Amino acid sequence: MIKLHFTASPEATDALAEMRARHDDAGPDAADIVVALGGDGFMLQTLHAFTGKNKPIYGMNLGSVGFLMNEYRADDLLERLGAAEEAVIHPLRMQAHTPSGVIEARAFNEVSLLRETRQAAKIRISVDGKPRICELICDGVLVSTPAGSTAYNLSAHGPILPIDAALLALTPISAFRPRRWRGALLSHRAKVRFEMLEVAKRPVSAVADDFEVRDVTAVDVAQDRSVSMTMLYDAGHNLDERILSEQFSC
Prior knowledge:
5 helices, mainly beta, elongated, 6-stranded antiparallel beta sheet
């Protein structure tokens, strides 16, 4: 028998009670699978909470978008889990440099740099130690994983990446100069460094998923291949299919 642990966002407490009435909750340590009830934001929180614990995550949507989630249904959960398809993802590792020290965080969707005031940010971008953009004047810039490529990255007109692509998306946010730069596709092995220019006049924050660091002076981003998380999807509705569907209409 599959041992389950249920976790839910504050908006999904009724569904949590229903699921626990139907199925035993083995607790977070003894469970084989974690069932997350909520939206995409809660799925990201769950991924962070269970990083390194070798627990597949099966999400059911009780939020607004639910791109990372399965459809919520109270019935047939065990059958759905038995037929579920896996998607393995790796997070980004962010090292944010500030006047008071270096702060590290992981991001399963993206690391984004955002201006803090009315002044546009000025950012120098290096890839694998070589400067590529000497001065990007912008509202911000982000590095996205394939799993996050349909989220903020897509809203910023970045490319959608297949879930198993060995790529990262580097995407500007409202770039002013260079005006025609639309971003780049990078190897998953790439190491990206952002250096803030005119930091006193143009403060910038760095955000790894929902973790924010204010007033950064430099930010290093690379994929952390030592960390793997498994997400489970209903048969025929896996993350590959969802990402493909985002690119076509019929």
